[in-house]
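Can't paste images in this forum, so I'm doing it all in text. The chain is below; anyone willing to post the predicted structure tokens underneath?
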Amino acid sequence: MKILAWNYQGLGSTFTVHTFRGLRKKQDPDMVVLMETKNKRGRVEKVRKSVGYKEGYYVEPKGLSRGLALWWKKGITVNVLESNRNIIDVRVFCSARKEERITFVYMAPKYEERVVLCEKMRKNGERVRERRQQNKIMHIKKENGESIDNEEMIMEEFMKYYQKLFKTEDNRNWGNILEYISRVVSKENNERLTREVFDTEIKEVVF
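Text version of the structure:
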């Protein structure tokens, strides 16, 4: 996935829009994040539609400063998890069904604000790592009671289990199952349908 991030100091001028069109044509990014839009959503939406991006998400500017915009192509689904004047945190699903967690950050201009923002990002990263660890299978027990914690061995054991689970066994007693299924074809008709077909019969039908 190709992403273009651009702090372009306002989307109001014709020159800026023209420059962006050139970048769009040359780089063809799948997603675009724009910083310092300095324009209300309506104005930025017009530009988005004119350059061919399917959808967008916006953080409105404060007066004549700030403002964020995120655009993406058709075939991409974006779920916004959090946004403010410095962050757009999203979960992205592309056409290949691959999921990505992306946090777009526009660093705060003041030192005090940067410290707070960096600390917030650090905590967010820790929470993501904790959730991933909680969702990971650390060890399993085999049928013989042996415990394994090697990732490759765990995967191999799962493969063996499901292969065995869905494997057809020759000694399966189908009679116990079939006796509960209502008969549609009579025994006589079934014998006629399954009997051997002779060449003379085929010739009579075909020729």
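Residues 111-134 form the longest helix (24 residues). The longest strand covers residues 77-83.
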